[in-house]
Specification:
heterodimer; A: mainly alpha; two-stranded antiparallel ribbon; 9 helices; about 60% helix; globular; B: alpha+beta; nine-stranded antiparallel β-sheet; about 25% helix
Amino acid sequence: MIYSSSTDRYRDGDNESTSNRRKIDISNETSISQNDTDSILSYNNSYTIGEQYPQTLDRRIQSKAVAEKEEKRIDQVVHKSIEELSAAYYKGVISGHLSEEIEEKIIQIEYCHSMRILGEVLQKTVYKNFANESFLVSIGDALLRYSFREVDPWGVAIVSWFVGHPSDEVKVCAVQLIDNWNDKELLYFLDNIEIKAEWLKTYIFSIIGNKRDVLL
Amino acid sequence: MIKSNTIMISAFSDKHINPTTENILVMLPALKDIIGTDMFPNVFISQNIDMETGNISSQSNLSFASSDEKYKIICMERIDIICSTNKAIECLDGEIEKCVHALEYLLEKANASASRLAFNVDYVLEQLSVDTILSKEFIKVIGFYDGKNIREWSTRTNSYEEISILGNKELVNTITDIEINSNDKGEKTYHYHIDINTLPGNQGLRFNQSHIHPFLSETSHLYKLINSDIAEIIK
């Protein structure tokens, strides 16, 4: 979406609309809005900007700029890693070792970057390739190596997608992940799962049913 | 020809919707019913810096995207409901209604109040005869550019308008950005953005889910007025 510069500014909570400039009074070290006469309720938004010296504000503004730059760098890394994962998929299809290629690439992304980046890469990859059953199954198999604590909170999103997938193969992955991660709240995903294969229903009722008794 | 049209309805909320299993379990089917298509949850991390203390903190946030990539819901300190389409703005009442219901549902579920509400419309047109637009009298350029091929032009206007939300008077910024840009091939696109938002100075948590529909009713009247005036320019 193309945002106007005014939208960018109020996304940061600092609308620079002409009538709402914040006045920074260095001598009193407070920041007060010039526009409190339009308020319906009484308005008090004064606060102290850190210590006495304005250099502190400069450092914090610089820190904010550094943090924003870091976010952009992460976006670039995520984008590049998604492409690498897609390339690994095609390499795996050609070689016939799809699961191994995907798992190796996922471990590499985790090792070279972080679980946070891995989470964003996998969520975006699953979203873009939702119709690609073999790709999703390979990702699901690779995720079995991690504990729930490692993939929390994005692992829940991936499980929710797998549970709602039309393919039973992908739903098997979801059930295996829920079984492996051993978290009681994930069991609720299985309440409304639609399954055709009888053996899968049996799997769910027998193994996961035991977990309900233990975890709930 | 309409290239893209995006609307966004936002509420600056006092509650953060955490990306927990319970929230995803509860919200996913409800949002699917409201939007009318499968929704995919997504968890992403943002970094915030507290300008008062200097502390940098990471926060996990929840968002949803529809399977057809038309709707996006982002739940941070500000809740955004976004709809992207290439339909004309006059034909978006159904989409706006869905966005309103989604925002009402989220505020109700989170038991949250909001200090600000906003409505944005972003419109990109191409293959227009922008030279006709640029020749209109209201566009004042300095004499240097008379008769020249203008590659970029923009204007931004804001005024306060008074609206009524459930009997309470509220002032809103009514901002219109209009831009004409050229690409390397000389093809021009015409972009305008309407941003109607309650004043940031008033931080009172005075809006809840019952205020969203009245806010949209009032602001839709404003954006339709602006839109009809802009349509006069580009015809």
